[in-house]
Amino acid sequence: MYQFGVDRENATERGEMYSSGKGMALPRLTWLVIFAAAILFLMPLGRVTATPTGAPSSFVEACLEQHKITEEELDELPDDPNPEDIDMKYKCYANCLLNGLGFMDENGKLNAEMMHEAGILNDDSYEDMIECKAANDMEDDPCEYSFGVMLCARMIHANDEYDEYAENVPMVREVIM
């Protein structure tokens, strides 16, 4: 699995991922939940069809329960995690979120095209997500793949428009929890 480095032009192996120092750092892995919530906000309600229970809040709760993760445990994870140091249950939680949102194709890879066509990703975000997808598509493990895509997207969005979502963190968390 590969992540993009600071200059976004050179891919670096997962153990060498750096923070750019720009944008904001979210506490622990709260960004996983915020990423899913931001996508839920941007996605028309009818598009959330692949969720285990249907309702966004129960869908996130189902992923937490399925992987035996508490909200407190998410808050205890590092701001800029080294993927090799993260327990597999958190990586599989990321996979659960992406699958539950219906963002994965039949091969278990991110369906960025569908997200773009549905208006979930604008043109710039789509190009960034294609880069994240390409950087991780060689990963065979679905949990590692999903976590890698989310880390890459987080890094790109921290440098771009993601700050606007962070301003609404309390509101976003209320919606999905």
Kindly describe this structure.
The protein has 177 residues and is mainly α. It contains nine helices and two strands, in the order E-E-H-H-H-H-H-H-H-H-H. It has helices at residues 30-42, 56-66, 71-76, 88-100, 112-117, 123-136, 142-159, 163-166, 169-176, and strands at 2-4, 11-13. The longest helix is centred in the C-terminal third of the chain and has 18 residues, at 142-159. Mean pLDDT is 71; it is low at 1-29, 41-54 and 168-177. One of its GO terms (cellular component) is extracellular space.
Give the class-level CATH name: Mainly Alpha
Give the tally of structural domains.
1
Return Rg in Å. 15 Å
CATH topology: Recoverin, domain 1
Count of extended strands? 2
Fraction of helical residues: 40-55%
Which second-level CATH architecture applies?
Orthogonal Bundle
Shape designation = globular
Which H/E pattern describes the elements?
A: EEHHHHHHHHH
Low-pLDDT residue intervals, each spanning 5 or more residues: 1-29, 41-54, 168-177
CATH superfamily descriptor:
Pheromone/general odorant binding protein domain
Largest sheet: number of strands, sense, barrel closure: 2 strands, antiparallel
Mean pLDDT: 71
State the end-to-end CA separation. Answer: 30 Å
Provide a count of the helices. 9
Counting helices, strands and paired strands, the structural category is: mainly alpha
How much of the residues is beta strand, in percent? under 5%
